[in-house]
Amino acid sequence: MNVFTNPLALNLTRRHFFRASGFSLGATALANLQAADAPKGSKTGTDAALPETHFPAKCKNIIYLHMVGGPAQMDLYDYKPEMEKHYGEDLPESIRKGQRLTTMTSGQAKFPVAPSKYRFKQKGQCGMWMNDELLPYTAKMADDMVFIRSMNTEAINHEPAITYMQTGNQVTGRPCLGAWTSYGLGSLNQNLPTFVVMVAKPSNQEQVQAISARLWQSGYLPGEHAAVSFRAAGDPILFINNPPGVSPDVRRTTLDGLGKLNGITAEELGDPETKTRMAQYEMAYRMQASVPELADISTESAKVLDTYGPDVKKPGSFANTVLTARRLVERGVRFVQVYHNNWDHHSNVAGRMPDQCRDVDQPCWALIQDLKRKGLFDSTLVIWGGEFGRTIYSQGGLSKTNYGRDHHPRCFTMWMAGGGSKGGTIYGETDDYSYNIVKDPVHIRDFHATVLHLMGIDHERFAYRYLGLDQKLTGVEKATVIKEMIG
Questions:
Q1: Residue 106: is its pLDDT beyond 90?
Q2: Contact yes or no for 70/409 (Cβ under 8 A)
Q3: Which helix or strand (DSSP H or E) is residue 4 part of?
Q4: Per mean pLDDT, which range of 182-186, 188-192, 262-266, 419-423 is the poorest?
Q5: CA quadruple 151, 445, 140, 389: dihedral, nearest 10
Q6: Distance CA 147, CA 428 (A)
Q7: If you count Cβ atoms within 10 Å of the first and of the last residue's Cβ in the chain, which end, N or C, has fewer?
């Protein structure tokens, strides 16, 4: 009920009004004075929901490399030499503490400890212990990276876990991080989308996970903030080129006619999605000129191509995809999401992990070097990680040379580089079994809050009104910006 429908409110005198609202007016005045003293935010792009960021942004672009399936942290970044002493022993109940298991291992009679079979060395001035046997290129840039060894989630299965990591909620239908970025910060280039997604093809196809377009949807945000998917082979976008016999003039005339019809519909019905469709048609027309040039990597020098490794010219490879990601960021795309599959190592870690690391190791290093060369490293945040970790105990058979690992949400490792993050930082610790966090836990909410902070956005003040609630990426539970990760 508002003042116009409340008869008591209508009878309030001016004196009563000021007496009742005196404290509120004082608080408003104080807030305005504080806002005047606060540092100005950064300028946002076209059609941004925020006229400027809440405070100066440290990054303006993001390249998010998601390893679908959950990389085994103890085989890559979470060194556990003590496990050699416990090879084959049953995981102690004092470590497991009754934690939930998946149905894939809950029926096992034993949970034998499987130490990593790979070599680790300390790297960089930061002294990070890394698997330099499988990640020799990544190991060379340890001081550029923020290692988060204490990531954790409640989700134990892929679908809710990857949804949680991307959207901040295990339930589908929410906007993803890329969509929030597009909505809040707007576009930097009118000829390319604000948010692009690409699915790289792994060289090993042993066990790939399903990847659904719902992961890059806009949810309850306006439809134009969903990602545009670039294909791995053929035309990057379906129907980007005119069909035979259709000239650019005919295409332009057709779009003009559709625009007028959609304009009439928009005025009659007031459906915002009609305007979204109109904008998408116009974007598609502009992309006819920009996308072919973007996809043509032959314009890159031989020296640059060589840094990405032998697969860079292979369409859909991870190397080809991350080079395209750099070209997208260079042209003003705000957010590039890359998925790389087959990290679900329930078995044959010895056979699959080397292939997976070979796919991503040199290209990730090359991407960082390329961003530095282009002067984009300081303004572009690169994120690498999966949706959860893996168990120290083996799923199925165990030998000194091979083993498998089940899902483990209680702790896993991710890394960030560039974009205002504090390179050479090692944050969080796990126990000797890489099973429980013993220092500085980082929940998905904290991670999202920190990423938004790097973009100049206060996660508490960044919301969208939907179903009567101010919806936020970080939800309603407490989320903490991890200041130690910020440069």
A1: yes
A2: no
A3: none
A4: 262-266
A5: 30
A6: 8
A7: N
Distance CA(289)–CA(309), nearest Å, equals 29
**Strand partners for 133:** none
Dump pLDDT digits (tens) for 58-75.
Answer: 999 999 999 999 999 999
How many CB atoms within 10 Å of residue 397?
Answer: 10
Give the sign of the dihedral formed by CA 474, CA 409, CA 162, CA 199. Answer: positive
Q: Rounded to whole angstroms, what are the CA distances from 413 to 134, 149, 151, 181, 417?
A: 16, 4, 6, 24, 14
CATH topology of domain 61-237+298-485: Alkaline Phosphatase, subunit A (3.40.720)
Alpha helices in 173-247 (DSSP H): 177-185
| Nearest partner of 76 among 117, 127, 125, 126, judged by Cα | 117
DSSP lists the bridge partners of residue 151 as: 412, 442
Between the alpha carbon of residue 361 and those of residues 59, 192, 320, the distances in Å are 24, 28, 13
CA–CA gap between residue 439 and residue 428 (Å, rounded): 5
Provide the pLDDT confidence category of residue 5 given band limits of 50, 70 and 90.
very low
If you search the block for the tokens 């925020």, which residue do you land on?
50
* Domain residue extents for the chain: 7-37, 61-237+298-485
Other CB atoms within 10 A of residue 156 CB: 17
Q: Which of 431, 438, 419 is CA-nearest to residue 485?
A: 419
Residue with tokens 């807030």: 31
Nearest to 150 by CA among 487, 469, 471, 480: 480
DSSP of 259-273, one letter per residue? HHHHHHHHHHH--HH
Instruction: With cut-offs at 50, 70 and 90, classify the pLDDT of residue 208.
Output: confident
